[in-house]
């Protein structure tokens, strides 16, 4: 009873509802049904379901066709291992076939939609079938909501390629992008209506923006879905600040597992581990999604620096590293010492190990040299309009001189740090010391300190290298304290006696001026001299006022001047000099 005949099954293939409704009504509240013996066992994964052909073929085109194509209609066991969502999804679909109530939720709608497609539970075989039910829930409850769409999108990752076949993934991504940009517009309009702006949090970050709540939820997406979603929201006009926050959240969630021991192990074995490959893909994808390169980019310097260090550690592509180097160079005024202390990558260590007797350095100085080169050549590469107009870093009167001075302090601190590396070649140090133009350093104490540290750590360098290194220091811009130190520094070459001599002359000049001022201040004759000078001044003014009224006096003055000249000439003639 309740078992369909072969004739009934074959007839049902060409039409709808070719089954007895009394069966599904009888078992509407039972699962699994027990009062009727099973005539079909369905296997899904490691699970088996003892079911009945009649309710299944009434809704599923796939099962109906399998039963109809069986020899003599005797199909007792059916394997459906390809069901999207596995045994859980099939059980829900089977319940739906039996008329048992099935709740469609955000958590199961994706697998029900995919399972309905796989089992062919469409309107072609039965009215109000599972596919229509899932689509209605997606339309009404999922796609209008950002949070629900993100949740369903995450569940689709375990349902590939079925989720792509039913066009579910593209629809979810498009819905999220549209809703996010609408919310951004609405949020912006509501803020314009307020009488006063909300208090600033930090660096202009608004915690009420859309990216701060849903951006964290997309951090759990796989790399492919994340890339497609962020590309979509960027194309819809999402703010760069929001895009940046989403990228930072995703990077923190995806790259936190990068361990130094994994990198070292990969370098030793000469190959890549799966973890390294994954990290490399994440870094390259994130860099590709960053906002456009700009001096005023919203991407924080600390984030760029972290990406570059990770890119170096996992041997990311040269395009990826060059992009990060250029971004850091364009925003170098925001950098601190820790941002440019990039450790030498595993490739450098492997190359040093391959070389006979060579030791790898602690830091990659070539990266820093390229970053500063970008900074110095900003005018050549940037098309952005600047308030001060075009400027030349090589000019002492440049309006951006303050940026250059700041960069010189950063470079001097970097030189002092890498000078402690005993394996650093003098040529690398010298090339960095000579990188900036002469007017970049208003005071050369920082460079002198770095050179002194290098000479102390590397006492056996050649004299020519020692001379060239010290030549980079402008002794005229050393402070008195630095001059005093240089005068007693035995590590400096003989050419630095310029600095020592200048210091001594300066001290002598200061002493001379001080003594002279003191003598003038305390001498009793000083008052007499000042009184005599004032009297001469008044007398001179009197003669200037009356030359026209007394012409004879003018002639007398002229004669006296001529006599004085003759007298002076005579004296010169008899002088022994």
TrEMBL record:
Record-linked PROSITE patterns: NPH3
Membrane spanning residue stretches: none
Alphabetized UniProt keyword annotations: Ubl conjugation pathway
Domain NPH3 stretches: 212-507
Record-linked Pfam families: NPH3
Annotated metabolic or biological route of this protein: Protein modification; protein ubiquitination
GO biological process: protein ubiquitination
Similarity-based family: Belongs to the NPH3 family.
Protein name (Swiss-Prot/TrEMBL): NPH3 domain-containing protein
Organism: Oryza brachyantha
